[in-house]
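Give me the fold.
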Amino acid sequence: MIYFVFLQAFTLANIAIFIPTVVFMAKELTSRGENYSQWYNDIVIKADLAENSAVRGCMVIKPYGYAIWEKMHDALDKMFKETGHQNAYFPLFIPKSFLSREAEHVEGFAKECAVVTHHRLKVAPDGNGVVVDPDAKLEEELIVRPTSETIIWNTYKNWITSYRDLPILINQWANVVRWEMRTRLFLRTAEFLWQEGHTAHATSAEAVAETEKMVNVYAKFARDFMALPVVVGHKSESERFAGAVDTLCIEAMMQDGKALQAGTSHFLGQNFAKAFDVQFSSKEGTLEYVWATSWGVSTRLMGALIMAHSDDNGLVLPPKLAPIHVVMVPIYKSAEEREAILAKMDQIKAECEKEGLTVKIDDRDNLRPGFKFAEWELKGVPARVAIGPRDLAAGMAEVARRDTLTKQTLPEDGLAAHLKALMDEIQENIYRKALDFRAEHTVKVDTWEEFKEKIEQGYFLLCHWDGTGETEARIQEETKATIRCIPMDSFVCEEEGKCVYSGKPSHRRVIFAKAY
């Protein structure tokens, strides 16, 4: 990184004051067309969202990135509570024996588990640092939670005795650890933040309804807050959550045509209730096993937000998730101009805040306006307001939109109401753009040759599949494409046909794509 120092002059009490203005000339973002993966990494780092930590595979979420996650957290938390769920917290550590009780579950997570074997350190014999105390070995190893089904169902056993105790509708906000070997900021890290819902029900029908309700909550959040069009559907058997009877998901398309699984909701049947002997007395007086669900989204949503909407100038944020809705940049040459323009901006800011907008006045006096414009554009602030001496005299302000990179000059009177309306317009425009992109990159494919051609070009492929795991595995082996979901909405897929790979009969189309 190189930088230049400019002298910016102000006149105060007839004394000329020169203030060094430091303008950092950072390397431009890699373009999406040149290297999509590097473009993503550049945005995460240069927009101050996150960075790699000293712990391999783990990340530091920086304040600006965490502010976006907090917006997601608050919106989702409100939606969960509106559907009757309560928050609780369960231990980070899980006895190893708990994972052994549900065979499919432990098989699915065994290779990703971090294990605690000792509970104490001691000073090294040579006095150089510390070592694990061999006398502090745990009687039973503890697993750092990769997910909480086992510890929660062991707890639910103490809470449930009768049908009157049901349903239990619990969510927790927590961190989990999955020891990933190939990591990428937000998309796949060894430790990440998420929420996980865990519910218990008296009947299978109630649990299935809960599973569907929560995947639709996720879909509504993605569409309404993230401006992200998603497909709701079932996972194939090979893609299901370990230990689930059925997994529902929301799948989103990124700008490189790859899919990203943005959220999942699982019908667990009675698998975990039987593993932990969680039974209840029914209304009829019989002893029954409880029916279960679990569902979750994580900081992976941050990756989806970046890859679905951003451009070669940086981050593009839907207003509903933007930490700052409007940034205001004063343009001036003298101290008097600066004081007058900032006073006007304070007035406009107060009016905007009454409209529910978050506003930042960038009054840093060591940076040129052009640098500030580029910085806030990189950070994806939905709207920028600039006022110079001529604008002030005319009662006008320049308003720039981040989503379209267009500008217009508007009267200061009524500006706050205009900006409020503009947020809704930007939110809708970002969603519409992503929806149009997905429509343009979704095709029906009926031949294997066309499948191989289109999958390399970055498409969602609506294809017939014979329903066998063997065919699914062969397609993945030959093309790296997987069944992202068996759609429940958005696409009409119920029709007779022949499997695109095997030629065997098929009753519906599924979505194949390469994925993150």
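Confidence is low (pLDDT under 50) at residues 1-26.
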